[in-house]
Amino acid sequence: MDALSVLANSIEASGGPGLIVAAGLLARVVVGIEVAAHGLLPTVEFKARLALGLLVALAALPAAFIASPLATAELTLSAALATIAGEACVGLCLGLTVAAAVSAVAWAGEILGSVAGLAWEDGEEDEAAGSSAGVARLARWLSLAGFLAAGGLDIVLVSLIDAVRSMPVGFLSGSATALPTFETWAVRMPSMAIGLAVSLAVPALAAVLVFQVVAALALRTASCDPGPGMLHAATALIVLATIFVNAPAWSRAAGPRLLPTLVAAIAAPAPVPSPRSVATPDASSGGHR
């Protein structure tokens, strides 16, 4: 209760700016978790995700008050609304970054299922016809298992809390503030996820293509008709065998390979002044002793 009373006193002392900082932080965290939940928490209900966002925002609130330049500034209504909207956009970018990292292996499954011609209609998705729903869902659960086993959920939540120091609430309004993380959000992380998906899907696609070429040559040489669905079922077995053999690599791909980049994107390290930049008294000029 002491920590909560100190937090309440700091909000009361700061007045309106403190409420703006709290509202902006809540918008950032809730939007980020809600967007990332599509790949990170697929079976968790909205109430549980909202409660998780409130807990993370409450944990990051003391550091947000210290780091935010808005805690002691006078803001108008339009500036306050712009700040909350900007923090929601930051949360959207963070959530999309997490979703891209978790969904990279699922994209590999979709590529594999689409090229291999597999469309497993299980009735769980309205658009399952003509799509690769079954392979993509299998790959998604493999990636989610590897991500959670590598501590991805803890890293995401802790990085959201630490991000208030490197990206304080209201940092978008500062014209002199450098924004290097936007390059990571917009280019680096999605491109790395797409490259990972392609690198995971290419070996399986090569196995499927080799099997289909060999089967076509064998059928042309033997002059026999395997019947409808025979080659399709054999291709499905080849795909499942390839995923089974490469399952450890697919599950580890969403963990150790993407987590460092993900942490750098969510909570970039705050700039530390170099020791040479600190002013020191010159000995030859006769400093005070």
Plain-language structure description:
The protein has 289 residues and is mainly alpha-helical. The protein has one domain (13-269). Helices cover 71% and strands 0% of the residues. It has eleven helices and no strands. The chain has helices at 2-14, 16-40, 46-67, 77-102, 104-116, 133-149, 152-166, 181-222, 230-245, 247-253, 259-266. Helix 3 packs parallel to helix 7, helix 4 packs parallel to helix 8 and helix 8 (181-222) packs antiparallel against helix 11 (259-266). The two termini are 47 Å apart. Mean pLDDT is 71; it is low at 120-131 and 270-289.
Produce a short descriptive summary:
With 289 residues, the chain is mainly α.
End-to-end CA span: 47 Å
Portion in strands: under 5%
**Strand elements, count:** 0
How many domains, in number, for the residues?
A: 1
The residue ranges in which pLDDT falls below 50 over 5 or more consecutive positions are: 120-131, 270-289
Radius of gyration: 26 Å
Structural class based on helices, strands and sheet pairing:
mainly alpha
State the helical fraction: over 70%
**Largest sheet properties:** none
The total count of helices amounts to 11
H-E string: HHHHHHHHHHH
Overall pLDDT: 71
Mass-distribution shape: elongated
Characteristics of this structure?
289 residues, 71% helix, 0% strand, disordered C terminus
Could you give the topology of this structure?
Elements lengths: L1 H13 L1 H25 L5 H22 L9 H26 L1 H13 L16 H17 L2 H15 L14 H42 L7 H16 L1 H7 L5 H8 L23
Helix pairs in contact: 1-2, 2-3, 2-4, 3-7, 4-8, 4-11, 5-6, 5-8, 6-10, 7-11, 8-9, 8-11
